From TrEMBL:
This is Aldo/keto reductase. It comes from the Bacteria. Residues 9-300 form the NADP-dependent oxidoreductase domain. Keywords: Oxidoreductase. It comes from Proteobacteria bacterium 228. The keyword Oxidoreductase applies. GO terms for molecular function: oxidoreductase activity.
Length: 317
């Protein structure tokens, strides 16, 4: 299996695309169609943002299906496609990862995945070996693990090493409000072992975008509204600091939160549903925050005392 250094500084996420279980409508309160999202994808291609992250479970395949409808109109080698095997929805079969990958490939209109992740830490001993034949057959180019703690990452790495394979990437929730992967040593482990750390929920599903506050909360009825609206009065203190820093760089609040994640040595996955968000992400990749600004931002974040651990996570990731 080939090794890689993912050269892009930012990945674009399609979690908020599609509808149904764990889809854009239930989690984010969106009701977007392929027609709504096509300009988003096309603008990303124009700007050279060609690393896309999705999962079989996002809208139970509807995110992949929408993304796949766009992918088929572009040269495959121009895109880096990341999708995931989610044990909780695995088929009752002899080779469930193969089954799920086949379904993902069909929806995405691809014959291989650039990165294929074990989506959570349900059972490292059971599920890690499932990806070995997929990697050896060339159906996946790189193996990733998501929502794993440090010991689970090390154990998965050991299982793969026995077959001459390796973990190329780790994907965990990481933001100014949730730095567990940093404090637990996962970021250092990744740096020391040549593993790319993909940070998701860098903007806390919009709570750190500067768009929402106590006077402008998330619309009721979505998972993010239930998780963040109660905390928005406190979060405003952090977004105000981000705004002050943003003014120095002629940037947006979202761009500064994203640039912080890049400065920490991570590759942030930024969920995009509008052309403006794609353009925002592209600009964020070019912002280099000073040490003083990093310290100022982190000092504000550390005062919040808010837990943003979500229902699929444990306290150790």
């Amino acid at each position: 299996m080939t090794q890689t250094v993912f050269t892009q500084k930012i990945a674009l996420g399609a979690w908020a695309w599609g509808t149904g279980f764990a889809g854009g409508d239930q989690v984010f309160g969106n009701h977007l169609t392929a027609d709504d999202l096509k300009p988003v994808f096309e603008r990303s291609m124009e700007l050279g943002l060609t690393l896309w992250d999705t999962a079989a479970v996002y809208g139970m395949g509807t995110s992949e299906k929408i993304l796949g409808s766009f992918i088929q109109n572009h040269p495959r080698e121009k895109l880096t496609i990341s999708t995931k095997f989610t044990p909780q929805i695995a088929a009752e079969s002899e080779h469930p990862a193969q089954v799920m990958l086949d379904e993902s490939k069909q929806r995405l209109n691809i014959d291989y995945a650039d990165i294929y992740w074990i989506h959570n830490n349900a059972d490292v001993e059971k599920w890690t070996p499932e990806l070995i034949p997929l990697a050896k057959s060339g159906q996946i180019k790189h193996i990733g693990v998501s929502n794993h703690n440090l010991e689970e990452i090390k154990r998965a790495s050991s299982i793969l090493a026995k077959e001459g394979l390796r973990i190329s990437a780790v994907q965990n929730h990481y933001s100014l409000m949730h730095r567990v992967s940093e404090y637990s040593g996962i970021l250092d482990y990744c740096k020391d072992n040549g593993v790319v750390f993909f940070s998701y929920m860098v903007l806390e599903q919009g709570a750190l975008s500067g768009k929402y506050d106590s006077q402008h909360p998330f619309a009721d009825g979505s998972a993010r509204a239930a998780s963040y609206n109660q905390h928005l009065p406190k979060i405003e203190a952090l977004t105000q600091v981000l705004k002050e820093v943003a003014e120095q760089y002629k940037a947006s609040v979202a761009q500064i939160a994203t640039a912080w994640a890049i400065a920490k040595g991570t590759l942030p996955i930024i969920g995009v549903t509008t052309v403006a968000q794609v353009e925002d992400a592209a600009l964020a990749a070019h912002i280099e925050l000073s040490e003083a600004d990093l310290e100022k931002i982190e000092a504000s974040a550390e005062k919040l005392g808010i837990s943003t651990i979500r229902e699929w996570e444990t306290t150790v990731i």
